[in-house]
Target: GMC oxidoreductase
Amino acid sequence: MGSSHSHYVSDPGEFATQATDRTDKGAQKKRKAYDYVIVGGGTAGCVLASRLSEDPSVTVLLIEAGTSHEKEIFTRIPLAFPRALRTHIDWAFESIPQIRASNRSLVIPRGKVLGGSSAINALIYQRCSPEDFEQWVNLGAAGWGYSDIQPYFKKAEQFIPNPRSPGVKADTYGADGPLKVGVAPEVSPIHQVLIEACEELGVEAVGDLNTDKGPLGASTFVSITDGKGTRNSLAVAYLPPSVLERPNLTVAINTTTEKILFEEVSGHEPRAIGVQVAKSADSPKFRVRADKEVLLCGGTIGTPHVLLLSGLGPKEELVKFDIPVIKDLPCVGKNYFDHIAAGPLAIRAKPGWTYDYLTAPVSGLLALGRWLFFGSGPMAALAAPGAAFVRTDDQRHVDLFSCWLGERVDIRDNTAGPKSPDLEILWFPLITGNMITPPPLGVHGITMGAMALKPESSGELTLKTASIYDKPLINPNVFESDNDWQVVARGVRFILRLARSETMQGILDPKPHSTDQSDIFWPGDAHPDLITDDEIRAYVRDHCLPIFHPTSSARISPTLETGVVDAQLKVHGVKSLRIVDASVFPTQVSGHPAAVVVAIAEKAADLIKADLSS
Ligand SMILES: Cc1cc2nc3c(=O)[nH]c(=O)nc-3n(C[C@H](O)[C@H](O)[C@H](O)COP(=O)(O)OP(=O)(O)OC[C@H]3O[C@@H](n4cnc5c(N)ncnc54)[C@H](O)[C@@H]3O)c2cc1C
Model:
């Protein structure tokens, strides 16, 4: 599996020049140099490094703060992804206390490893809704419509068929790309029954969520697994030994980019000319030149953090931290959107239907052995094998969502169009707890999530200090808009009805009605027609969590008053600097975003290559 560590460099002296006090042209010229310097070896960064180094006449340096993925076992086992959270390969960010979430700080994991968040995520591969991209164009992102981006999904993909999922058709997908995608070889037995329960409630079962028709309906997820039960992170897919061996590509790990360096000539726009890196806060600083472009791929949190510390951001904030202003860019760190979920809803199940038995050490070890030797068994399954995507204004589902014990409130439609959902009902075939703290032993159940896909609430990222080594302040501003709460509350009632559907009888085992809010099966044990809005609200306040999909903190928009990059992903008012990652989404998408990040990076590589040849 993979290549040896010798493919990576981790001593900055090998690819950069130790910093001196001199900043003149002579000093700059003496620096080690590459044509393209890519900051962040995550989902997008791996794609760019691989595609740009296809041209042997250019040199590429990829700089990743985290380690290599190769020895990180939890980046490989699909079901075990939560084990990677809160380890050395997770930045483990937290929000500032959220007033509408009982003043809790909410966890925000992000991959700190080659492959980035694609190495620690839940492996769901979703192209989201074609209408999402039309909405992007309407917001001013010319050239990012569905017909522009769809070929790049296909370019990235290498479809792995699974005969047990005939609804997922090979011709929907690309065949020759680096990224292996397909339905995971193992799917938990309760998953198919949940789809049938959705059908009983009137939600159509669909063969595949990734077709041009859009994602409405209930289905099995396509995943980023390789057909042998292993995660195909973007580092595995795009940086195999054959790519790492290219003489024009250098991949640096365990190295933090502290800031971007600029050349300022009066009367001209500042030009990015390289970056400053270090191993840690106390170790020597090194500088490396970028002769063509600096490409920032630090993700929705890392990217605005580096921009602000480099002097690109709202002037008043930079001045507060004594950071010299290179360009006043008011939208850096703003428009931070994440999907928000009600909180994990545990529904009691009869033993034998779920994966909870794996928490017993012997069963867990046996399953691990099966995965190691055969690539099969529960460890090869996705933790979240499927979901239902619905619209809360769908008149066919009105009775499912509500009981109107309280005042009836209509939901504003923020979807990208009539074929796009605003609510996802997601299921896990075991008790997950909050994914960070393990659940109690000996309980059997499934965990369900109700996620608002097009939240109105947006937040911001600001500096805590002027050092890259201090985490920024992240305020997702959850439930600032009550509309978002209305969406997840409907999702909670939907879940309670699903748990009591005829199809689930004999499998799930909720009580007829309970008000015991101290039980881990609250509110799963509550009856959908008896639980009050106030009770749901209290539960959501205490348990809601953003679902690890932040976007848009450096978004594409035609002007610097409304966004950070133009439609070519070039930073407004600055030369030789592009951003390529989830931070450029003009707005949130109505599904899981990793596939979209990959397609953006594929298209960005073509934009950069086209600029070079013009
Ligand atoms: C736990 C979890 C579960 C998820 N589940 C799913 C899912 O199932 N499906 C899905 O579609 N999406 C999922 N997501 C979201 C998805 O993985 C991300 O949206 C996507 O991977 C983001 O890609 P990116 O390139 O923007 O950022 P990342 O992949 O996070 O890459 C950013 C990289 O930049 C590096 N970096 C940052 N700052 C610096 C610096 N100063 N110097 C050097 N390097 C730096 C980071 O270490 C990282 O490697 C999940 C995310 C998480 C965390």
Notes: The two ends are 40 Å apart (CA to CA).
